[in-house]
User: Fold this.
Amino acid sequence: MSTDKNLETVVKNYILTEFLPGEDPGELTELTPLITTGILDSIATLKLVGFLEEEFSITIEAHEADAEHLDTIERIAALVKSKAK
Amino acid sequence: MTRRSAEAKSGFVVQPGFLLILGQLILIALLVRVLDMQTSAFRRVVYVSIPGFAVHHLLPPRLRLRFFAAFSIGALALVMGGADGRLWDPTLALFRTAVILAYGAALIGICLLPIGFWKRAGLLAAAGGLAALFRAGIVGSPPLAIVWPVLAAMFMFRTFVYLYDVSTSPKRPSLGRSLSYFFVIFNACCLLFPVIDFKAFWRRYYDEEPLVIYQRGVRWMGRGILHLLLYRIVDQLLSVQATDVTNGTQLVQFVVSNLLLYLNVSGQFHFIVGTLLLFGFNLPETNHRYFLASSFTDYWRRVNIYWKDFMMKVFYYPTFFRLKRLGTAWALVIATVVVFAVTWALHAYQTWWLKGTVSVTLTDALFWAILGLLVLFNALWELKSGRQRRLSTRRYSVREAISLSLRTAATFAVIGVLWSLWSTESLSLWIHVWSLADRYTLLWGAAVMGAVMIATVFFEVLPGLDTTAAGLTRPSIGAPRKPGVEAARCAALLVAMLLVGYPLVRTQLVPIWLQPFRDALAASDSLGNSEEAQGRGYYESLKAFDEANRQLWETLRRERLVDIYTGNNPVRRVRDFRFREPLPLVHVWAYSTDFRTNRWGMRDRDVSVTRSPGTLRIALQGSSHVMGWGVPENRIFKASLEETLNRGRAGANDAPRFEILNFAFNGLSPLGQISVVEARAGAFRPHLALFIAHTFDYEWTVRDVSRCLREGVPLDDATLRETLAKVHIAARTHPSLADERLKPFAAELVAWSYRGIVEKWRSVGTLPIFVFVPLPAARPPQQRIAEQLSLAERAGFVCLDLSHVFDGHDTSDLVQRDYYRHMNLLAHDLVADELARRLTSDPRIDLWGRARAVLAADQALARLSSQ
Assistant:
């Protein structure tokens, strides 16, 4: 399991590799909206959830697959941290 | 910027930017008024929203939410107090609003009960079932009929979202938040409402600089109006129903126009959500360039974003998460199937709540099944192959741009074909329509696809190539960088639309070749009836009226709608001067009476084409008052007259009989009566025909002449065609403008119609008799009656003037209370008595002499046959 320190980096790298290949990593910040801009559509959201569950050994509920929890890397990290406690 | 600092910048502070917003909102109110948009209730809510917005902005932030909730409930009361002929009825308003609030509060309360999810869901289902009994009219009082569709518009979908959110959140929302979410402004007058997400509603409340949110709201309201104006053009100039398609070109027109009719929905949604932004609810777009979707999943994500989010949240993710142990692909397949099955069912559920009736059709099921499959295959493809996403505006290579344009055009074509299936009443009709495809279908289809490709390049490709173009065509998500420029751009669009809509500009400055467009823009948003809306697709049918939602539309429009039948309208369209005719052998409740038709579609007992020997047959022609609107069949003056004429022959077998056949039907003008003789009455070979002239003969003839052009009914007369050409009336001229231009020629058109009726009757050997019977509540001036009688006499009628038949009686004694223009039982009796007296005493008619001659001739014929 990844440590808290590099959690954001792990998530960012996954998003860049899986959904944004070829894009400038510098443009994806911790506050870049992901769901509301369409980067994370339903299929990408499900892939991301699968990744987070596997990578961080957590379980994400259906109602957490929304913009409140997954719209930015910052929020994703907060969700993972809250689950890992 | 944090919410606190954003809010601190407003509240009691009048900034120049705020005044700019206010100025644009005044332009919007003017537009709504000049263009007579939507319903009377809608316009009133727009007018009060502007001062409401100003007060809300100037209030301290802590008071804003309470003000919004109170203001929304006030707008609900404003709408609910609407009544025929009255601006606002306070008793009705308070009564109806109180019931909506009480029932709504109960539903919210159930969602918040400290019991298990399924128990709350069960209680909600029971409460919904009770409301359904009220909606169906099984229980409840008539003044409250409007309450249930309005309550449904607020709660039928958002309750799912609310229950889901409160069940999955650790904290219960406050009552103020809950009330604001459900009783949201505009919901009472826009029943087709975007399914706003509860969390999004509050998560993004004032999460940006207020003026930026407001300006975006104004932009979306302006865009909404633009969509609604484009819809008018489509509706007036392009729209064609499946039943009217006769060739391959019209097939393309049918497919494209039906798809474009969705502009009405997206226009309303943009306007509604734009208004909510004015109150700080920084909601996302409801639709995003859905005609430029480049795949089926893309279409699903763009066409109704709020619906897609609702389905994802409440059905898709829960299903997927529950089944993901089966593997991603299988879980995705089942979740997608569930979403489209639920979408199909919920559309029928929505229809029932809003209209009070619902019909499940094969085309409807096929549409959702096929669209679901297309989206599913697309989703599986994306799952396997991925989808290219970008962090910034994408730069397309020429090859990519061509590929995108082709995919977009292909998606548009497939969705258009599917949508045409959805808009057609039966699969056999749809197959028939497509059997008319020819080389022109390919040609026009290619032209449409070419236009879509050009639009794709302009709106999707160019923004990535050039910053200027990007500025013109950027999607609306995101804060505008220069508020002043943004405001100026919005104001320019609003002023342009206002100029186009302003009557002086529309009629004087716009060149004549643009007349169809200006006429279309001048068309107010009319209310279709169920018969017309059936062939215009799902969303058009939702705004059609019938008995089940009569009070709803009368309240929203502040006008009386009386052309109502219970259940399906028992008429069918015909392509002649009548435009429609009653169906044969129907039995419905109509005009507050039992309404039956015989096998000929007449409101009369059954009759055979061949008359009985010794019977003098009289045909009766007229409109609603002759058909007996609101009067039992056996109390129409026709029945009394027939009885009076036959009274003298009681017991005498050798006396002639009289038989009166009632061919009257509501709304028929003298022009329509020509077709009545030709298509129906002439075949019965009556000896006499009584044409009961109408007070509105002039107005209705004018109405129907222009309608002939619009509906392609041939006017095979050089004089008529000359008149139409002289006043610049074409098929696409809006009815109100056509009527205005034809008015000076009304007498000429009526005379032509009268001559037509006389000619048709004479050709079958019938004596045509013109009878003027005024409507008690609309007695025309004597000069008009004299002119009408003179026209009839010159046309060849024998004329009977019954204009004084109601003298000595007050109007209130002669008219029905509910159907105020129409004669009551006393008026029918007066007409019957006077008509009997005049028919039997007029030497030109010589009724007894004719009857005896008929009898003698029939007896002679019988003797000859027996020999």
Notes: The interface with chain A takes residues 164-165, 168, 199-200, 203, 284, 297, 301, 312-313, 316-318, 320-322, 324, 328, 332, 379, 382-383, 386-387, 389-392, 477 of chain B (CB under 8 Å). The first strand of chain B starts at residue 571 and ends at 573. Chain B has a mean pLDDT of 87. Strands of chain B lie at 571-573, 580-582, 587-590, 593-596, 615-621, 657-662, 688-693, 767-772, 798-801.
